[in-house]
Amino acid sequence: METAKSGSNLQEVEMPPPQGEGAALSIGWPIVKAMSHSLFRGTGIPRGLGLLLKSNTWDMMANKPQWHPEYFEFSDDEQEQVFKEVFDLMRPTIILYDNLKKHYGEYLADEMMSAVAIRIQLGFFLLYSYPEDRTDIDQWRQAMANYFSSKAWESTQWVSEDKTEYRMRWTKCAPTMILKAYGLHSYARYACLAHHIAFDCLAPEVIFSVANTIGTGDPYCDYLIRIPLSEDDRKEESDYADCYKVEGGREAVRHWEEVYKRFGDFRI
User: Fold this and answer.
1) pTM summary value
2) What single string gives the DSSP state of each residue in 132-165?
């Protein structure tokens, strides 16, 4: 592993024990609002409301997607059970995508779900608890552990000796892997982009960088959180490398950051 930008050596570390109960996949009003708002823009309110109701009621009984553990490689039985639980939570989204394909075709369904993806992820980020001191790498490590310590995710992590840099290589991400396995490739690609928006808008004290994501077909996600080394040390275009793997990805990130800049929220 190379050294940090500061020149400090990177040391592999274990994820600390979580504090409290993580809520990375909990559903709240911001998420429901985000999905509805995005969907209605593409379908109109009557059709969109009908599709949402059908996807979450009748189709959950009559056209429920089946769990296929053979789509994945699990480290043990516990991880398989965790993935299954995540899949159960994501069933309505998978059904909604299938219904959109039936009504609008695959191209427009992908386009609509791409718009939904970023809004939903931003809804999740509004539920997170960010470090009190956002320039403290150890607090970032704890924040990540609080939400991503279950077997739905697997990672290797490094921290620089001078505590200016925190790197994560995520080799398993249950939500993204399930989306891709069940055909929601566009949704998976766009959902990952929301991390840039959240960090740039809600944690501007640090520099967040990504080059690879599972959502864009890479074997892992390489996240980096870095404390600026000086006033002139700022986020560069190379820190958005993953965005350029998604058609219109960089523009989508700019759009949502401008929304936040203008209105002080994400308008989801």
Assistant:
1) 0.90
2) SSTT-HHHHHHHHHHHH-STTEEEEEEEETTSSE
